[in-house]
Amino acid sequence: MATLNLVLMGLPGAGKGTQAQKIVDDFNIVHISTGDIFRSAMKNKTTMGLKAQAFIDKGELVPDEVTDGIVKERLSKDDVNDGYMLDGYPRNLEQADALESISSELKRDVNAVINIHVDPEVLVKRLSGRFICKTCGATYHKIYHLPKVEGTCDVCGGHDFYQRDDDKPETVKNRMNVNVKMNTPLVDFYEEKGLLYTVNGEQYIDKVYKEIKQILSNL
């Protein structure tokens, strides 16, 4: 089988984290999450890590070229010889162009982009369903995990519940719209290049993975 160099895409709540773990376990490739490599680059004080830290310390967004540099540093390491999976990068077309140059220069071209597709409205329901017991902090979900007795916490018997601001439908909807706007051009970009494989993320977790595994095994 050819070396797998992947990009994993999907809107928040689409189940990327779960599927990423299964891919790594089965195909023995390195999972490169941008959050992790940022933290590592800053902790190890790499050239790009120091640049990123300077922006973060000022409360500014890290510019694309610094993010690209951190990804390049990571993709230059020997542990990705047998394949990698990028998660959280690229986030826009400029980064996608940069990734093409980086991966080509390092002779580690991306050979597949897995896009876990879930209808944004379904995702808003998934992500805005969480509510919490005010008394003991037990967490519930309007779709997946309701208290056994309506209005009563299973853990402490309390009757007071609240939703975190992050979980409120209007906040989730706004976040989703921003992500859809960012994701759509990338989906088109990779589709034009013939690298995109879209998987239906509204199925059971194992069914989603079965589709992904089939795609990757055929590459």
UniProtKB/TrEMBL annotation:
**Membrane-spanning regions, if any?**
none
- UniProt-listed GO biological process terms: AMP salvage
Q: Where does it reside?
A: Cytoplasm
- Where do the Adenylate kinase active site lid domain residues begin and end? 130-166
Q: In which pathway does it act?
A: Purine metabolism; AMP biosynthesis via salvage pathway; AMP from ADP: step 1/1
Entries under InterPro entries matching the protein? Adenyl_kin_sub, Adenylat/UMP-CMP_kin, Adenylat_kinase_CS, Adenylate_kinase_lid-dom, P-loop_NTPase
Please tell me where Zn(2+) binds in this chain.
133, 136, 153, 156
Please state the protein's primary subcellular location: cytoplasm
Q: Per the record, what is one GO cellular component?
A: cytoplasm
Reported EC number(s) for this entry are 2.7.4.3
Q: What class of enzyme is it?
A: transferase
- What keywords appear on the UniProt entry? ATP-binding, Cytoplasm, Kinase, Metal-binding, Nucleotide biosynthesis, Nucleotide-binding, Transferase, Zinc
Reaction(s) this enzyme catalyzes, per UniProt? AMP + ATP = 2 ADP
Q: What exactly does this protein do?
A: Catalyzes the reversible transfer of the terminal phosphate group between ATP and AMP. Plays an important role in cellular energy homeostasis and in adenine nucleotide metabolism.
Domain text from the record?
Consists of three domains, a large central CORE domain and two small peripheral domains, NMPbind and LID, which undergo movements during catalysis. The LID domain closes over the site of phosphoryl transfer upon ATP binding. Assembling and dissambling the active center during each catalytic cycle provides an effective means to prevent ATP hydrolysis. Some bacteria have evolved a zinc-coordinating structure that stabilizes the LID domain.
The identity of this protein, by name, is Adenylate kinase
Please name the source species.
Secundilactobacillus malefermentans
